[in-house]
Design a protein that fits this description.
Layout: H1 3-8, H2 17-23, H3 28-33, H4 49-55, H5 60-76, E1 81-83, E2 88-90, H6 91-103, E3 110-117, E4 123-130, E5 138-142, E6 145-149, H7 151-157, E7 161-166, E8 171-176, E9 189-190
Parallel strand pairs: 2-7, 3-6
Antiparallel strand pairs: 1-2, 3-4, 4-9, 5-6, 7-8
Length: 191
Amino acid sequence: MDSDLKVKYKISKNMLIGEIIQKYPETIDPLMGIGVQCVGCGAASYETLENGLKSHGMSDEDVDNAVKTLNEAVEKSPAKKEVAKDVTITEKAAEKLLDVMKSEDKEGFGLRILVMPGGCSGMKYGFEFEKEPKDGDKIFVVKGAKFFIDQESLEKIKGATIDYSESLQNAGFKIDNPNATSTCGCGESFS
């Protein structure tokens, strides 16, 4: 595979099978379709795609074709995530925002996501409803839900995934930020 294709693809042969399945669950069926039936196997989670495919007797060409097939599956999947150059916002986050806005009688509003000083690690995330974006905001629209992020905050969360998480202990919007070098125990702040 030449270097131009590596830039274009989200999935590479050097990624761990577990990582691929976690980030792109739409690849499970194609993986099984090419003969990798162990996608749920704990051992396969720590194996690269290339090693896993080769252990199933596939050639280098087969591996390259599989990488292409998996990337096509990601591209063709129903929009599980809307990917922007700056951040990724999941459909689940958008759907939850629409539900909350409806229950709070805030239909037509957007959710402002901001990074501000605070918390035990130095910076924290803030979320608030706003009717309109401010000058300089980057606006993301996913499934009709609007998200507003100012440029300064955007620089601090560039490349992040914004999702909604529910558990027995807590529920809320979650930011998986690759720029955070450390987080506090409660997960509310970062540096």
